[in-house]
């Protein structure tokens, strides 16, 4: 494609999609530049384990340079992309630098959204970055500490109430993990309070949790949550978040908002695509984005009429074989990454035929509720309980294995399983030394999308 | 001692001294309250391993509540002590609460000092807290990232220059670890720079490194540092720190200051005691503190005429058998903790005889320079090289073993040893996403003493 000089592929975003695309180009005759704001790839599905003190950030993150060390045609660039010039074929970085490309791959993912209530962000942090996770860990652990010192029973109850908003996999996992933290790990740690008295409330807008799964699995999950002592409020929306309460409202015309006194709210609802998607769609021209801001892509993951521009992962919206949009999950992102890497590599070898369209191979999905409690479904086969949990464990460790952390994580989990311990229960960060002070916002720079 | 109600022992500080004192009271007929600003005990001697990406904070920290979970007479209180009322026998906390005591044990340790140049703190962070360590990790790793993107050779050289101030054990360990990071771990990670070109400079004001050790061991350490490619400037003082350079001046009357261009300075010099020491000494009255602010204590670690007030660990200054002040090292703190716990327990059993004075049992000291390079001395026996390193490793793992992290740490070290990897190379924190921006200060709340 390019003339004398080597073809330059610029990949923005080192998540599942971008990293797999880069790996697919390992042997291609091109120069690959992977740009990310962070120096590590993060295994987001286990972030809730960091937020609840079971794992350390380094257990679920691996330096991008380390992963791509031996891929000599690939360069990792730490920087924040702020714009595109598709005429000049460059991306611009926040520090003013421009990076030229022959082929552009954009995979900057998604973050959570507060549905227009961005003022809730400080009071109800989401769970997308390592900093989010350590901030949530700080808040949850500090709530117990403050409760231990609180003489007023009402205030103590409020401090021991934890509200998780959103009943998808992340919300269910967070609620389950907080329950285990309170009822198992911390059960002997305090003197004035009994952590087992904690209330954990999961608020979900739909009529069931894990709405993307089969109804039977939702029912199993609901039952498992109840067994863990978690109150689940279905058909319920959050209509207000204050420093000392959350207001929820049932999804009925005659419903009135009810206040749940709490100081610890975790946001696991809503998806918003990285702002770079809209920016790129506008630059290409005539390319629609959907409500969460995802870019509509062609069957080969290119955008509009630009065969040199790819968008993939959570940032893309693509129609699956069943006519429905593909879900924003890690397997789609990984497979799209593999696919796009292959498409570019084939082109560079001189293959001029149009590529076969991307086809998502749905190997199934799974979610865990707690120790030995999970759901999994694949090709009509549905699993629950210990077997589903072991499958979940196996697949997650298999994935992490690629990043050298396998044995560590396995050990730490085994340790937690048998001792009900969570060794990484550290209250760290700026406000760590003053747990009695009100919650501080996650630094604004951290809450935004990766890219 | 106390009347009907149970005797209340308040221990301030959950470091080596305070924690050991608390443990010594496990079976004593009293109520123990351990107050710390942080929710975890930190194994400070390995903090440099966090600062250089080899270990995660949770590997070297254990929640105080978890350690003392089964000690039913002991209560952990997360709070910051701000003052003492020795008449009313209470300590006051920052949030306004007061905690009554019958016996007070103060062990809030020490931090580094800039010898009157507190303005250097932002540019040359020290290594006392978990936040210090992750901040230094961020700076060191970011320097390589910025160098990779820096076109100007002079600026690149400056970014690849790391200055460690202080040639005691911490400084020597930091310099050695940075050298291994640059020359081993990162050697294949970059494309535009060669991390092996890094300059690591250790500045020491005395005529030798590891001044507390025998001269032969200092000579071995100096040689080992040279072999790791570290430039050692002896007899040299830092006279200025700016954002882009450090000014050092030889210890000769005719010397002129020389500038070392660098953007990464790590402070491992100077000791300043927690401010609570002076506060308590003044409250007791007539009790001297030395220049670093340590409290002069009686042979039984009590203060002045108060037999109910103990000061120990790095906060205390006590004369050893050789007439010299005991060194501010972990073994002294641990032994004083054991001792004071025993003294209080004996009193509570009705023992009214004056306690035998505290006697430090010097089991020896050790410092590591790098993988398989260390020095150790005990009772005139001096070890260097692999044997000293294995001894160092063994003793540190033995200690960590008490906090359940043993196998994890052992595994991670073994892994690092054979792969020269450092898995925890994460750039995290507020400024993590903008590595190109100038260094930010460690949050002021974090740089102060623990207590």
From TrEMBL, chains A, B:
Highest taxon of the lineage: Bacteria
InterPro entries: FAD/NAD-bd_sf, FAD/NAD-binding_dom, NDH-2, NDH2-like_C
Protein family per UniProt: Belongs to the NADH dehydrogenase family.
Keyword vocabulary terms for this entry: FAD, Flavoprotein, NAD, Oxidoreductase, Transit peptide
EC number(s) on file: 1.6.5.9
KW NAD (keyword) present: yes
KW Signal (keyword) present: no
Protein's name according to its UniProt entry: NADH:ubiquinone reductase (non-electrogenic)
Reactions mediated catalytically: a quinone + NADH + H(+) = a quinol + NAD(+)
Enzyme class: oxidoreductase
GO molecular function: NADH dehydrogenase (quinone) (non-electrogenic) activity
Domain External alternative NADH-ubiquinone oxidoreductase-like C-terminal: from-to ranges: 363-418
SUPFAM superfamilies: FAD/NAD(P)-binding domain
Species name: Urbifossiella limnaea
Gene3D superfamilies for this protein: 3.50.50.100
PANTHER family with a match to the protein in the record: EXTERNAL NADH-UBIQUINONE OXIDOREDUCTASE 1, MITOCHONDRIAL-RELATED (PTHR43706:SF47), NADH DEHYDROGENASE (PTHR43706)
Domain FAD/NAD(P)-binding: 8-337
């Amino acid at each position: 494609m390019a003339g004398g000089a080597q073809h330059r592929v610029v990949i923005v975003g080192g998540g599942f999609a971008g990293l797999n695309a880069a790996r697919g180009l390992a042997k291609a005759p091109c120069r690959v530049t992977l740009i990310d704001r962070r120096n590590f790839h993060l295994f987001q599905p286990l972030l809730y384990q960091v937020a609840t003190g079971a794992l350390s950030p380094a257990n679920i993150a691996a330096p991008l340079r380390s992963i791509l060390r031996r891929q000599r045609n690939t360069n990792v660039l730490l920087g924040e992309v702020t714009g595109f010039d598709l005429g000049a074929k460059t991306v611009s970085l926040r520090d003013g630098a421009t990076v030229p490309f022959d082929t552009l791959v954009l995979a900057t993912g998604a973050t959570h959204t507060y549905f227009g209530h961005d003022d809730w962000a400080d009071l109800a942090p989401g769970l997308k970055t390592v900093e989010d996770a350590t901030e949530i860990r700080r808040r949850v652990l500090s709530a117990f500490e403050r409760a231990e010192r609180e003489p007023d029973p009402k205030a103590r109850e409020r401090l021991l109430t934890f509200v998780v908003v959103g009943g998808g996999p992340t919300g269910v996992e967070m609620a389950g993990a907080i329950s285990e933290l309170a009822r198992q790990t911390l059960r002997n740690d305090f003197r004035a309070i009994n952590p087992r008295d904690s209330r954990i409330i999961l608020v979900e807008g739909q009529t069931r949790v894990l709405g993307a799964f089969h109804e039977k699995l939702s029912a199993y999950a609901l039952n498992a949550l109840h067994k863990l002592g978690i109150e689940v409020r279905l058909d319920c929306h959050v209509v207000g978040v204050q420093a000392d309460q959350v207001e929820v409202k049932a999804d009925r015309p005659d419903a009135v908002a009810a206040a749940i006194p709490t100081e610890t709210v975790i946001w696991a609802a809503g998806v918003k695509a990285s702002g770079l998607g809209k920016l790129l769609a506008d630059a290409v021209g005539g390319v629609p984005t959907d409500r969460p801001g995802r870019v509509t892509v062609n069957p080969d993951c290119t955008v509009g009429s630009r065969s040199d521009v790819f968008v993939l992962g959570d940032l893309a919206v693509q129609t699956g074989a069943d006519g429905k949009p593909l879900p924003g999950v890690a397997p789609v992102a990984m497979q799209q990454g593999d696919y796009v890497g292959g498409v570019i590599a084939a082109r560079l070898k001189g293959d001029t035929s149009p590529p076969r369209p991307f086809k998502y191979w749905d190997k199934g999905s799974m979610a865990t509720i707690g120790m030995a409690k999970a759901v999994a479904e694949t090709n009509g086969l549905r699993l629950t309980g210990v077997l589903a949990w072991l499958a979940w464990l196996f697949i997650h460790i298999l994935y992490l294995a690629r990043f050298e952390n396998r044995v560590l994580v396995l050990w730490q989990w085994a340790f937690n399983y048998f001792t009900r311990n969570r060794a990484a229960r550290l209250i760290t960060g700026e406000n760590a030394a003053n747990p009695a002070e009100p919650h501080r916002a996650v630094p604004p720079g951290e809450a935004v999308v990766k890219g």
